[in-house]
TrEMBL record:
Ranges for domain AAA+ ATPase: 156-296
Keywords associated with the record: ATP-binding, Leucine-rich repeat, Nucleotide-binding, Plant defense, Repeat
Species this protein is from: Fagus sylvatica (Beechnut)
Family: Belongs to the disease resistance NB-LRR family.
GO biological process, one term: defense response
Pfam family, one: LRR_8
GO molecular function, one term: ATP binding
Protein name as catalogued: AAA+ ATPase domain-containing protein
InterPro entries per record: AAA+_ATPase, Apaf_helical, Leu-rich_rpt, Leu-rich_rpt_typical-subtyp, LRR_dom_sf, NB-ARC, P-loop_NTPase, Plant_NBS-LRR
Keyword Acetylation annotated: no
Lineage of the organism: Eukaryota, Viridiplantae, Streptophyta, Embryophyta, Tracheophyta
Amino acid sequence: MFSRIATVIKFHENTKTLESELGKLNSRKNDMLEYIELAKAEGKHPTMQANVWLIKVEEIEREVRPMLEASLNKSTCTQDCCLDLNMYNRYQLSKSMAQKVNEVKELIDSCSFHNVVADRMSPIKAVTVMPAPSLVGQKAAEERVARLMGFLNDDGIKIIGVWGMGGVGKTTLVKNLNNMLNSSLESFDIVIWVKVSKDLDLRTIQSHIAERLNLELNEGESTQQRANKLFRSLIMKKKCLLILDEVWEKIDLDIVGVPQGHDQANCKILLTTRSLAVCRQMMTNADFRVDVLNEEDAWNLFVQNAGDIAESEGIHTLARAIARKCCGLPLAINAVGKSLRNRTVIELWKNALSQLQCSVPHYGSSEEEMYLPLKLSYNSLPSKILQQCFLYCSLYPESFSINISELIQCWIADGLIDAHQTLEESFNNGIALVENLKDTCMLEEGEGSGTVKMHDVLRDVAIWITLIEKKSGFSCQPNRSLHKMPDKLQKNCRRVSFMNNSITRLPSQLLGCSELTVLFLQGNPLRKIPDGFFREVRALRFLNLSGTHITSLPPSLLQLGELHALLLRDCPLLDKLPPLGALEKLQVLDLSGTRLRELPKEMCKLKNLRELNLSRTHHLEDIEAGTLSGLSSLEALDMSSSAYKWDVKCKTEQKTSLYELLSLEQFSVLHIRLDTVGCLALDSAWLGRLKKFSIEISPRSCSSNYLPNQHDEKVVILRGVHLMEIGLEGLLRNACA
């Protein structure tokens, strides 16, 4: 009798324990399922271990539920029943539940979120929706999209050519088509968009396609090997569309790896180009010409950009006439309309129309019909300085993302920005100019942070302007695969760009350009500059030799008494500098990423130097004492990731120390890495006067790739440093992050 009573007591205990542990297991399962769902949104997937655990949970839930239901039924029996024939069944059920309690606990203990999910490539979306101007109000454009959609649905059409003059809206049209495919019931498995550069590079096209397919291509592979991979991946798609935007010449799709032909009909091609000849070379099955907008559509687009003021009394007639002068070219309509947006002064509208009517090209060209309306936006810029800033951007290659800081340095050096103000004030002035150009659609955001770029057509317009306005003195020859620089430049050249060519040899000296103020030679595989190269260009104010393979600088450089900015960034073989003391007007010196081991002794004579960049100088060992304190105008010093060993006051009294910075009255920006906190025993009030700093304190054993950016204010980075060390309090009090 006593054993039966004990069994009854154990039965209820096991039931409660099993219910409790099963609840815990169910909660853990729900947590895991939620974790997996969140991970899937990040492109991850559950591991085999996680899947097996979930299967075991489902199995034990199926086994335990009947037990709990049975225990519930038996617990409602009267005591006489419990002590009767069902006693044996209750005992067996209690024993089974005890076993399941142990199994449930084991499952709970084995659940770990460390191995639940694994990374994988993000799932491929069929269509990547692209930002594009609306076609609402442009009836002809909407009809064009519908017609193109018809071509895509026609199985007999494999390659479609969309052609027309630059700026006519081909890309806008096709972007809207692309976005419509995102909601189309009969869409493609995948739509791949590739913007093609004017300088055709098949490997770049392959890389863009592979990126869209989540396919890895190795740089070491041949073009044919990469093509084979792409072909195998694309041929597996039931239906795909490849959009090639801005094609300038024939693209051999076989070399790229794009399936073609009747036996490979799953891949359609749609290309945009300015030339019908390209369509013929690409063997298109359907050619679709995009003409300029008709008058009513052009007017609707103009009003969208200029605002309702264009419909107002007194301005409406002028606005209509201006819109007509834009010749239906969307790019021109957008630029001109925005330049007059919400302008209420009627004289501005009259002046705009007068300029359009009176502009007479110096020579005939089909392109001028496009350039003249765009030149109005240039003429409407509020100052000559802003116009010059716009033309400066044409010195960079097509579609090039221009570093804003470097651009501003150039403007300051060449006198477009007043240098008689602080470095911060000059930079802010430059930012205002850049933003003005962006607001008037003359510049747009670049590919990276802190960059801008010109639309290809606008760059063509800028170059055209420099040709018809010869007094501007611009000569733009970047990225033209030149192997040699001309022996003589045009006499009126003052701003010249040969950047990103293949120039390996320079003339013995530059002739015929005594007025030259700006010279871009960056990005060329130059190894040597002739000794007398700079002898005849003593008016030079800005020189960029970044990214070249030079090992030294010629003696004639020291004759550049007007030089304001010298950029030698990322010259990996440059290990020695001549005495630079003769460059009395030098304000900016960029030596980042060079192989310098020491700075020249006469560098302390650069009394006007305001900005010195020595970041990433991994071999720099010696800076002579007095060098920094001699730079009385220095405002900014960047020595992030430099190998130079700092101290507050060097014991040898032969090397420069941080103590020298305290004597610089104009100093306001510091980027530096120190070995120990002891190196920073500086006046806390002096740190407070700095407008911007990034100070990293870490042993050399702690590697760091941190480099400051223009948005950093006051940043402290500590690695391997005890937070209670003496000297940190003042630094941390002045830091923002």
